[in-house]
Structure of Transducin/WD40 repeat-like superfamily protein:
Amino acid sequence: CVFVDAGVAAIDIETKKRKEEMKAREAQGRAVADHGDLALITVEGPQVTASEKISLRPPMLQVVRLASFQHAPSIPPFIVPKQSKLNGDDSVFLKELDDRRYSEVAVAGGGVSVAVTRFPPEQKRPIGPLVLVGVRDGVLWLVDRYMCAHALSLSHPGIRCRCLAAYGDPVSAVKWATRLGREHHDDLAQFMLGMGYATEALHLPGISKRLEFDLAMQSKDLKRALACLLTMSNSRDVGQETTATDVTQILNLAVAKQAKQESLADAVQGIVKFVKEFFDLIDAADATGQAEIAREVLKRLAAAASVKGALHGQTLRGLALRLANHGELTRLS
């Protein structure tokens, strides 16, 4: 089963633009032929420019082997000599088959059976040349040289989700993903991203925070990207100013100060680890006019930078520049 996507290259966007320009010129030419110079008169009105930014993505190819000769080949029943009763070998083979069948499925909450494997185990390939009849009810039908029909199952959610995404129905692909083990959701999300469905892939429930951040950035969902980054860097409570108003609160603050110092050390390490992602998020927020997100990020970066030796050289200069851009002069000093 071969899944392909041509991707989007810069030349594709250029070609599309050229085709639209040629279409517009042809339409104008036809209008001039029909109505003469009157067709060239334009009425001044509001100019609407479609500045849709198309993101580039590389071509994608994924091949899944459904059947092979690695298992005993599927032989038409009338070629196999009839046996009156099962011998010992057959019973062992049937037991293996049963074991394999049960190991492929786990039951999730709510009684939904979930595939624990990324793809279906390879099925037995019928011997000799085959004719592909087609797909019906989640089964690929084949006919061998003895005119005997064979069926290869396509109902495994790993295959089903990919088929739906490739067909252009990513919403159904995400729904079907509930039947796929969560440890395989990152893999499926990468596939959907390759097909150009970054926004839909964000709805997969089992994706890792790292991939969720990348998908959120591609989908321009910066609030979600910020939430992922705060979780990954363990810096949710950094930069939150707290003021004590009465004696009890002051005492509580004194007790909490030690714990806060320890958590701050962890948070600073996290911020330093993901500093490039924090910068990317600030730049994306600036480009889309989401100042409050940029401020949330700057608050945490400035807190990390105030710890001596946490940030160095180019990183520190990059932070200073962004703080100045946002008028954060107190933190900049």
